[in-house]
Amino acid sequence: MNKINQIAWDDTILPFQLDRSDIRGRVVRLDGVLDHVLSRHDYPPVVSALVAEVALLTALIGPTIKLRWKLSLQVRGNGAVRTIAADYFAPETDDAPARIRAWASFDPERLDGRTPFEQIGEGYFAILIDQGSGSTPYQGITPLAGGSLAACAQAYFAQSEQLPSRFQLSSGLSHVAGEGPHWRAGGVMLQTLPAQPMMPAEGGTGEGGLIAAADILQGAESEDWNRANILLDTVETLELIGPTVGPTDLLLRLFHEEAPRVFEAQRVEFGCSCTADRVRNTLSIYSAKDIAHMTTEAGIVTADCQFCGAHYEFDPRSLGFEATIDAEGQPLDSSDKAAE
Fold first, then answer.
1. Are 280 and 318 in contact (CB under 8 A)?
2. Total-model pTM
C-alpha cells in the first residue's frame, strides 16, 4: 500500500521498492531518538558519530527480519573504542513503534585525530537475533573490513546471507536558528535477492577474501544493482539528514527512473528493556559469597544500565541463589527457594 499522506519523517523507517530493478530498501531518519540515546552519556564527538551510525544501521536492518523480539548489532575492536552496541525491539502491536537503544565503551586517553572508524581498530561486526523465549538466538559474525561501518554491514550480508546490500549513512549536529544543537542521522539501505546467486569457489573479491556483491550477482541483476548504486552515490549529506527533504522526495530525486514505490512508514522511539527484575535474574546465578564481593561499603549492591543510565540499588540478601529475603524484604522459606 503506497503511503500518500504527508507524515512527520523524523524518527521513522520508510520501506520502499524499486520496481524497475526489483530492489528493495529503506530510508531511516533519526532525530529525537538519537538525541535521547546520546544525551544519556558524555561522549566525545568521534564516539557520538560511531554510536549514531550503529543506531542508524540497526534501524535499517531490524525491520528486514520477521522479528518477534530483538535484533542486536555489536561492533567490538581493540582500539580506543572497544564496543558499540545497539538493540532494535520489534513493535509489540501493528500500530506500536519500534524501539532502539545504543551505547559505546571507549578509552578516552587513546582517542586521536584519526577517523571514527579507525578508532575501533581490529575486531568484528556481529548481528544477533533473539526471537524470545522458546527459541535459540542466532548470531552471525564477520571481521571489520572496508574502512567504514557501512562497508562492514555490506560485507556481513554478502558473507553471511549471500544478500547483496548497500548502506549509505550520514549523521551530524544540527544547528537550527532558535534551537540548541542536536544530533540527526539519515540513511538508505538497498538490498536485492538474486534469482541464482553465484558462489565463489575460493573466497571473494572483498577485503581479506570476503564475499562481495559482485561475487553474487550476474547478468541483468548485476546491471540493475550497479545502476541503483551509481544513483545512490549521488546523494548529498543534507538530503540524507534532512529536515528539508522528506524521504519520499529523496527517493524521487535519486531513483525516479527506477519507479520507486513506498510502503507504510514505521515509527521508532527510544526504548530500554532494563528493569530491577531483569537485574535480579542476571544475578541469580551467583552465590552469597559472590554477592558479598559486589556489595559496597554502604551495604548495597548497585547496577547501572549502560543503555539508558538507570541506576538500581539492592539489598544483597535479596540477590543470588542463596537469597534470604525477597524483593520486598520479606523472609524466604525453603519452599520459596525451591520454586525459584
1. yes
2. 0.87
Using CA atoms, how far residue 24 sits from 18, 85, 191, 225, 268, in Å, is 6, 26, 5, 11, 20
What is the residue whose three cell numbers read 520477521? 66
C-alpha cell at 67: 522479528
Which element (helix H / strand E) includes 276?
A: helix 276-283
Residue 3: CB atoms within 10 Å: 16
DSSP 2-42: ---S----TTEEEEEEETTTTEEEEEEEESHHHHHHHHTS-
State the Cα angle at 82 between 65 and 160, rounded to 5°. Answer: 30
What's the chain's Rg over C-alpha atoms?
Answer: 23
76 within 8 A of 126, measured Cβ to Cβ: yes
Q: Count the alpha carbons within 13 Å of 18 in the hemisphere toward its beta carbon.
A: 30
Place of cell 544513483: 231
- The amino acid present at 314, given as its one-letter code, is F
Q: What is the pLDDT of residues 124-162, one digit of tens each?
A: 999 999 998 888 889 999 999 999 999 999 999 999 888
